């Protein structure tokens, strides 16, 4: 009997040792040394997954020459994206406002930062690597400057304290070395670049509409009718603003068509716009009240809508474009071609079909991809 007990205890100890070894973190390399092996400073180049889109083309994710993507850089960026320790209050992370289940947007009317509520709705971060401008007013033109802007104006970090924290965390020091090479130091610039690498992996390409264009599925009757309506001047007539090939990833790419006044406010004079939008950035009064045309990918899960979150549902958004277009001096007439009539006045069936199509732009695989989830949970 005693012999059996000793055998059981020995087996349990062996299992415990194996378990602890499997739970070890990355090597505790926290100091730079000339004797460090070169392998510590070489990350694995990231290979973008092939986006199978049938006969349609999907724009590639392009990284700048000074920030090539590596698997270690992406892993590092994912950790930094979700690490609330990096904020002024130690309670807010990038992922706290840009939630995966909402296509890396939020479900609140106005975004929240460490200082409280902002004046604009949280935009989705999906497909940033293909996007030419960022924020509702387009004030940044690269993923890196966008990240830097958000860190400094939303999280208000103490970079000295943050770098001390990161430098004392073995997994972080290991990943910084792998991602950015010698000398392996941790800097604000590298933090920004790592987060940008992670954001470039957030690609949405597997909605029902994608699957339909690939020839994998057939759309339902309402989805098909909504697709036709989207591209019809006598239907939803949405494509003038949201045309970007059949995948509707972003707005038209010409600078003149990235921003629009979509007839949601009535003002007599341009100076009456409460939020000057793009005009506050470029100084052009004709751009007052104009905002970046957002992606429609995953739009069904990114409510509330518009730059100020004024519409709670997609039905309300469709209702605005169908029946409630408002006049102001600089409405984007090329997109709001039925402004004089207040909209196209779709019937109930037409609105339902358009809603079905917009719902078919949801990419569930993106919303549940573990590679994009919080690594600390």
Q: Mean of residue pLDDT?
A: 88
Low-confidence stretches: 1-5, 7-30
- The figure for the number of domains is 2
Class by alpha and beta content: mainly alpha
> Taking Cα atoms only, what radius of gyration do you get, to the nearest Å?
24 Å
Helix content: 25-40%
Number of helices: 14
The CATH homologous superfamily of the largest domain is termed Cytochrome c-like domain
Could you give the distance between the termini?
43 Å
Shape: globular
Number of strand segments: 4
What is the CATH third-level topology name of the largest domain? Cytochrome Bc1 Complex, Chain D, domain 2
- Proportion of β residues? under 5%
Protein model, in words:
It is a single chain. Helix content is 35%, strand content 2%. With 377 residues, the chain is an all-alpha fold. A two-stranded antiparallel ribbon has the order 1-2. The chain has a two-stranded antiparallel sheet with strand order 3-4. The protein folds into 2 domains: 45-203, Cytochrome c-like domain (Cytochrome Bc1 Complex, Chain D, domain 2); 208-361, Cytochrome Bc1 Complex, Chain D, domain 2 (Orthogonal Bundle), CATH 1.10.760. The chain contains 14 helices and 4 strands.
């Amino acid at each position: 009997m005693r012999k059996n007990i000793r055998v059981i205890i020995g087996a349990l100890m062996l299992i415990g040792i194996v378990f602890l070894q499997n739970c070890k973190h990355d090597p505790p390399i926290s100091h730079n040394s000339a004797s460090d092996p070169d392998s510590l400073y070489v990350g694995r180049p990231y290979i973008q997954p092939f986006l199978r889109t049938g006969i349609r083309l999907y724009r590639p994710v392009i990284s700048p020459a000074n920030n090539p993507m590596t698997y270690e850089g992406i892993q590092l960026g994912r950790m930094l994206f979700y690490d609330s320790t990096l904020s002024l209050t130690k309670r807010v992370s990038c992922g706290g406002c840009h939630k995966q289940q909402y296509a890396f947007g939020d479900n609140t009317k106005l975004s929240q930062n460490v200082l409280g509520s902002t004046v604009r709705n949280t935009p989705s971060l999906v497909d940033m690597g293909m996007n030419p401008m960022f924020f509702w007013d387009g004030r940044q033109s690269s993923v890196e400057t966008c990240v830097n802007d958000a860190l400094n104006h939303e999280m208000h970090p103490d970079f000295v304290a943050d770098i001390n924290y990161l430098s004392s965390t073995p997994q972080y020091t290991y990943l910084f070395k792998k991602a950015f090479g010698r000398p392996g130091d941790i800097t604000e610039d590298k933090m920004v670049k790592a987060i940008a690498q992670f954001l470039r992996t957030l690609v949405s390409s597997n909605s029902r509409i994608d699957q339909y264009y690939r020839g994998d599925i057939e759309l339902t009757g309402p989805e098909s009718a909504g697709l036709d309506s989207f591209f019809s001047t006598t239907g939803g007539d949405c494509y003038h603003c949201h045309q970007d090939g059949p995948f509707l990833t972003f707005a038209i790419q010409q600078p003149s068509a990235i921003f629009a006044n979509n007839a949601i406010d009535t003002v007599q004079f341009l100076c009456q716009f409460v939020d000057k939008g793009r005009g506050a950035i470029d100084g052009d009064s004709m751009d007052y009240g104009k905002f970046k045309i957002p992606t429609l990918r995953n739009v069904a899960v990114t409510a509330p809508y518009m730059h100020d979150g004024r519409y709670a549902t997609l039905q309300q958004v469709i209702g605005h474009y169908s029946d409630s277009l408002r006049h102001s001096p600089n409405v984007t007439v090329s997109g709001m071609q039925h402004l004089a009539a207040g909209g196209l006045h779709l019937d109930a069936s037409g609105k339902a079909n358009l809603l079905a199509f917009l719902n078919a732009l949801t990419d569930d695989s993106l919303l549940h991809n573990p590679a994009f989830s919080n690594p600390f949970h």
